[in-house]
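Entry 14. Ran structure prediction on the chain below.
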Amino acid sequence: MSDTAHPYLSRPGPKLLLINNQWVPALDGRTFKSINPSTGLVLAEIALAGAADVDVAVKAARAALEGPWARVKPAERQRVLLRLAQLVDQNFEELAWLDSLDMGAPISRTKAGRQRAVGMLNYYAGLAINLTGDTIPNSIAGEVFSYTVKEPVGVVGSIIPWNGPLSTSIWKIAPALATGCTIVLKPSEEACLTPLRLGELLMEAGLPPGVINILPGDGQAGAALSEHPDVDKVAFTGSTVTGQRIIRASAGNIKRLTLELGGKSPDIVFADANLNIAIAGAGNAAFQNSGQVCSAGTRLFVQRPIYEEFSERLAKFANSLVVGDSMQKETQLGPLVSARQLERVTGYLKDGKQDGARAVCGGERVTQGQLANGYFVRPTVLADVRESMSVYQEEIFGPVISMMPFDTIDEVIARANATTYGLGSGVWTEDLRTAHRMSSSLKAGSVWVNCYQAMDPAIPFGGYKRSGYGRESGRHHVDEYLNVKAVVMKIG
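Output, structure tokens:
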């Protein structure tokens, strides 16, 4: 199937904004072009939301929150989420296709995400009817009954990046719907086709007008949403720098925030690890989605007795990966999302080389053959890395590993934690004592042992330090969308 042969992309005219259950152009008429990162060719023209559009969408979300949506019972919210889960399942091939085409993830990867996408919706549907308060024994004089109730926090501004359009959209929308909030979702302008198609399915699932509004836009739209005085909460996934801007913007009306920010995660391989598992595991921890994952394991520490062997075998693994067009079923490593991201990653590779890092494999853009017009970088393993280098310290967001030897467990704990980030971490060992000590010592929101990026809707995910705060997934997630009200009633 060609890019434009798909029914969604072949519809005439630009893709529009979803506000109050209506598809509308941007108020100022602006549009932008969505680019296929595998080919550099235009996929679609899309309306570009601005501050005025954000204001209209927030007003629609407020009206829905205080109107029909407020009267919807938990069981009805559950039915909407279950119906959406059915629709996502029925249309999953198309959604995966749009994800791959728009942001470059290999189709084999996006098609493997069915269980996660549908599973998240089913999980939050279960929580929708289990949002309970507490009865509280108290020591107040007289007969006093005290209890708590949980209420929706209100209008939520959800801002998502481009590196997982379908799953990240669901991650933001589902808990908001489960708790009775209303949403203005701003997907990145670099990958918004899937969120827009999801908007059609949300309306088909039976949502009242204004409950969900979807506004593709750039940083100006994101800033308008973060600053808006009638937005009660912002849920953001993206860079630490942008997260800091959102924190400052939230001060106006003291917004609630959930921030899943950047990472420079350590991945640690001990000499007793099963190397057949650890080599592919460590490689995929950094190369999956072309390294465009906040919690990617990009600082790889390998215990010195196995360092040379591991380096050779990891390079062989990296070189075996099929780099290609995201729509080809054999592709294992697709392009970076944009020309801007390509420039960023190749800039880091140039800096690393100038600083003395050595590319064991990769280290360059693909400039020949059918991929030359796309945004492809070969999977790269850097050796001779020093901890003062930018490739070690900063989030590259590309398929690049900085690999270093270590000797003792105390040493690697200190080096792993010597970062401003704390999102993910990995440990590869056959020793249970080592696994437990590392799990308790690493300062990160997730510790994966003999696996990496293992995600489940029931397991909370989030960061320490500059990787953000708040948790997504698990029961903790819905609490981020609820206010707790205490009721104290004197009855005698």
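Residues 266-456 form a domain with the Aldehyde Dehydrogenase; Chain A, domain 2 fold (CATH 3.40.309.10). Will compare against last week's run tomorrow.
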